[in-house]
Amino acid sequence: MAEVLATVSVMPLYAQVVVQSAGATDLPIPETGAEPAVASTEAVLVATRDDLDGDVSIEVRRGGDAPAPGVRVYEGELSFTTPALEVGSNVSGQLTTIDVGRIGWLPLAIFVDPPEAPSKVVVVID
After folding, report:
1. CB within 8 A of 6, min separation 6: which ones?
2. pLDDT tier at 2 (50, 70, 90 boundaries)?
């Protein structure tokens, strides 16, 4: 069964939220602005609905067999130098820190719902 580590609500300024290792300096840059997600070694920017349409819910889960809702927009690994994940908005300074219990390369997947203009982002840590 999946363990929910955190659920937060964030204003998605510029229609995006971030999932990153704490203190990330290697931030991704979208090429076209139409990508559902872009990643670097330390962070993933996830496209969401516009901030004028309301907050976005971000849920962070660890493991489990329950399928995440929506469509997978990212699957890979992020590099952690501290055992902390940050989710939220770098632009607004609204970041929530979650203890992930380890450093190094951390496998994770990110799902969004609905696929167009998502209002929910689910991060599943392996």
Report:
1. 58, 59, 60, 87, 96, 98
2. confident
